[in-house]
Fold:
Amino acid sequence: MRFITLGPRGSNHEFVLHRYLEFHGIRELATVDLAVDFKQGAQAVIDRRSDFLLQCAVHPATSATVARFFDGLYAIDTFISPSQDLAIIQRCGAERPQSLAVMRPTLDYIDASQWEHIELVDTVAEVTAGLVDGTYAAGVAYAAVAQKHPERLQVTQFIGTVDDAWIVYGRTRVSNGGVVAWRDSPAAACYRQSE
Structure:
Protein backbone atom coordinates (compact mmCIF):
# COMPACT_ATOMS: atom_id res chain seq x y z
CA MET A 1 0.00 0.00 0.00
CA ARG A 2 1.25 3.44 -0.92
CA PHE A 3 0.21 6.45 1.16
CA ILE A 4 1.00 10.07 0.42
CA THR A 5 0.59 13.18 2.54
CA LEU A 6 1.95 16.67 2.92
CA GLY A 7 5.66 17.07 3.58
CA PRO A 8 8.31 18.03 4.39
CA ARG A 9 9.81 15.32 6.60
CA GLY A 10 8.76 15.88 10.17
CA SER A 11 5.47 17.51 9.21
CA ASN A 12 2.41 16.97 11.35
CA HIS A 13 0.80 15.17 8.41
CA GLU A 14 3.65 12.66 8.32
CA PHE A 15 3.48 12.28 12.13
CA VAL A 16 -0.26 11.55 12.12
CA LEU A 17 -0.05 9.26 9.08
CA HIS A 18 2.47 7.05 10.89
CA ARG A 19 0.14 6.93 13.92
CA TYR A 20 -2.78 5.97 11.64
CA LEU A 21 -0.77 3.19 9.98
CA GLU A 22 0.30 1.87 13.40
CA PHE A 23 -3.33 1.95 14.59
CA HIS A 24 -4.34 -0.25 11.66
CA GLY A 25 -1.30 -2.51 12.06
CA ILE A 26 -0.09 -1.81 8.52
CA ARG A 27 2.93 0.43 9.08
CA GLU A 28 5.33 -2.30 7.93
CA LEU A 29 3.19 -2.98 4.84
CA ALA A 30 2.85 0.64 3.74
CA THR A 31 5.16 3.09 2.05
CA VAL A 32 4.85 6.79 2.83
CA ASP A 33 5.59 9.49 0.29
CA LEU A 34 5.49 13.22 0.91
CA ALA A 35 4.00 15.77 -1.47
CA VAL A 36 4.85 19.44 -1.78
CA ASP A 37 1.12 20.25 -1.80
CA PHE A 38 -2.22 18.47 -1.87
CA LYS A 39 -2.73 18.98 -5.59
CA GLN A 40 0.41 16.89 -6.17
CA GLY A 41 -0.72 14.32 -3.59
CA ALA A 42 -4.22 14.00 -5.03
CA GLN A 43 -2.85 13.69 -8.56
CA ALA A 44 -0.52 10.90 -7.39
CA VAL A 45 -3.58 8.93 -6.21
CA ILE A 46 -5.55 9.65 -9.40
CA ASP A 47 -2.53 8.58 -11.51
CA ARG A 48 -2.08 5.40 -9.38
CA ARG A 49 1.39 6.37 -8.15
CA SER A 50 -0.13 6.31 -4.63
CA ASP A 51 -3.14 4.47 -3.28
CA PHE A 52 -4.26 6.77 -0.46
CA LEU A 53 -3.91 10.44 0.53
CA LEU A 54 -4.11 11.79 4.09
CA GLN A 55 -5.20 15.39 4.72
CA CYS A 56 -6.10 17.31 7.85
CA ALA A 57 -9.74 18.36 7.57
CA VAL A 58 -8.95 21.94 8.68
CA HIS A 59 -6.03 22.44 6.31
CA PRO A 60 -6.62 25.51 4.10
CA ALA A 61 -6.34 23.33 0.96
CA THR A 62 -9.04 20.81 1.98
CA SER A 63 -11.97 22.44 0.20
CA ALA A 64 -9.90 22.81 -2.98
CA THR A 65 -8.85 19.15 -2.79
CA VAL A 66 -12.46 18.00 -2.49
CA ALA A 67 -13.73 20.36 -5.21
CA ARG A 68 -10.92 19.86 -7.73
CA PHE A 69 -10.81 16.07 -7.50
CA PHE A 70 -14.45 15.18 -6.67
CA ASP A 71 -14.57 12.80 -9.62
CA GLY A 72 -12.00 10.10 -8.91
CA LEU A 73 -10.79 10.94 -5.39
CA TYR A 74 -13.14 9.94 -2.57
CA ALA A 75 -13.13 10.23 1.21
CA ILE A 76 -12.83 6.63 2.41
CA ASP A 77 -12.07 7.17 6.11
CA THR A 78 -12.04 9.85 8.76
CA PHE A 79 -10.55 9.82 12.23
CA ILE A 80 -9.54 12.07 15.12
CA SER A 81 -5.93 12.38 16.23
CA PRO A 82 -3.91 14.76 18.34
CA SER A 83 -1.14 16.57 16.53
CA GLN A 84 2.39 17.28 17.70
CA ASP A 85 2.62 19.70 20.62
CA LEU A 86 2.93 23.32 19.53
CA ALA A 87 4.56 26.28 21.24
CA ILE A 88 5.58 29.82 20.59
CA ILE A 89 9.31 29.43 20.19
CA GLN A 90 11.88 32.17 20.11
CA ARG A 91 15.52 32.18 19.14
CA CYS A 92 17.80 32.61 22.16
CA GLY A 93 19.16 36.12 22.28
CA ALA A 94 16.32 37.60 20.23
CA GLU A 95 14.93 40.30 22.50
CA ARG A 96 11.19 40.76 22.01
CA PRO A 97 10.86 39.92 18.32
CA GLN A 98 8.45 42.18 16.42
CA SER A 99 7.49 39.48 13.90
CA LEU A 100 5.94 36.03 14.42
CA ALA A 101 5.99 33.27 11.78
CA VAL A 102 2.85 31.11 11.78
CA MET A 103 0.84 28.77 9.61
CA ARG A 104 -2.59 30.41 9.25
CA PRO A 105 -4.65 27.69 11.02
CA THR A 106 -2.42 27.94 14.12
CA LEU A 107 -2.84 31.72 14.44
CA ASP A 108 -6.11 31.31 16.32
CA TYR A 109 -4.34 29.35 19.08
CA ILE A 110 -2.60 32.50 20.34
CA ASP A 111 -3.04 36.20 21.09
CA ALA A 112 -1.33 37.69 18.05
CA SER A 113 -1.57 41.26 19.32
CA GLN A 114 1.87 40.94 20.96
CA TRP A 115 3.58 41.13 17.56
CA GLU A 116 3.67 44.02 15.14
CA HIS A 117 3.90 41.74 12.13
CA ILE A 118 2.53 38.24 11.47
CA GLU A 119 4.32 36.33 8.72
CA LEU A 120 2.15 33.58 7.25
CA VAL A 121 4.11 30.45 6.34
CA ASP A 122 2.80 27.40 4.45
CA THR A 123 3.47 24.74 7.11
CA VAL A 124 4.36 24.42 10.78
CA ALA A 125 7.32 22.29 9.67
CA GLU A 126 8.58 25.28 7.63
CA VAL A 127 8.25 27.58 10.66
CA THR A 128 10.10 25.02 12.77
CA ALA A 129 12.95 24.68 10.25
CA GLY A 130 13.11 28.47 9.89
CA LEU A 131 13.58 28.91 13.63
CA VAL A 132 16.43 26.39 13.63
CA ASP A 133 18.22 27.97 10.66
CA GLY A 134 17.67 31.56 11.82
CA THR A 135 15.15 32.63 9.18
CA TYR A 136 12.63 33.52 11.92
CA ALA A 137 13.23 35.01 15.37
CA ALA A 138 9.90 33.71 16.73
CA GLY A 139 7.15 31.42 15.52
CA VAL A 140 4.44 28.90 16.32
CA ALA A 141 6.32 25.64 15.86
CA TYR A 142 6.65 22.08 17.10
CA ALA A 143 7.53 22.29 20.80
CA ALA A 144 10.02 19.42 20.58
CA VAL A 145 12.41 21.52 18.47
CA ALA A 146 13.31 23.63 21.52
CA GLN A 147 14.37 20.46 23.36
CA LYS A 148 16.48 19.39 20.37
CA HIS A 149 18.17 22.80 20.10
CA PRO A 150 18.25 24.34 23.62
CA GLU A 151 21.34 26.36 22.72
CA ARG A 152 19.40 28.15 19.97
CA LEU A 153 15.70 28.01 20.87
CA GLN A 154 13.43 28.50 23.86
CA VAL A 155 9.71 28.01 24.47
CA THR A 156 8.05 31.28 25.44
CA GLN A 157 4.50 29.88 25.52
CA PHE A 158 3.51 26.22 25.45
CA ILE A 159 0.31 25.67 23.44
CA GLY A 160 0.02 21.88 23.40
CA THR A 161 -1.95 19.82 20.95
CA VAL A 162 -5.40 19.83 19.46
CA ASP A 163 -7.54 16.92 18.36
CA ASP A 164 -7.92 17.39 14.62
CA ALA A 165 -10.18 15.57 12.20
CA TRP A 166 -8.35 13.81 9.37
CA ILE A 167 -9.52 12.55 5.99
CA VAL A 168 -8.14 9.58 4.08
CA TYR A 169 -8.87 9.62 0.34
CA GLY A 170 -8.73 6.75 -2.13
CA ARG A 171 -9.98 5.88 -5.60
CA THR A 172 -12.91 3.71 -4.48
CA ARG A 173 -16.13 5.39 -3.36
CA VAL A 174 -17.31 3.82 -0.08
CA SER A 175 -20.46 5.84 0.71
CA ASN A 176 -22.70 4.33 -2.00
CA GLY A 177 -25.06 7.26 -1.48
CA GLY A 178 -25.56 6.64 2.25
CA VAL A 179 -24.04 7.72 5.54
CA VAL A 180 -20.87 5.88 6.51
CA ALA A 181 -20.65 6.04 10.29
CA TRP A 182 -19.79 3.81 13.22
CA ARG A 183 -22.81 3.06 15.43
CA ASP A 184 -20.57 1.95 18.32
CA SER A 185 -18.27 4.97 18.10
CA PRO A 186 -17.35 7.14 21.08
CA ALA A 187 -19.67 9.82 19.64
CA ALA A 188 -22.55 7.31 19.51
CA ALA A 189 -21.91 6.52 23.19
CA CYS A 190 -22.17 10.26 23.97
CA TYR A 191 -25.48 10.43 22.08
CA ARG A 192 -26.86 7.47 24.05
CA GLN A 193 -25.84 9.09 27.34
CA SER A 194 -27.67 12.27 26.35
CA GLU A 195 -30.98 10.47 25.74
Notes: The beta strands are 2-6, 31-35, 52-56, 74-82, 86-91, 99-102, 117-120, 138-142, 153-160, 163-170. The mean pLDDT is 94. The chain has six helices and ten strands.
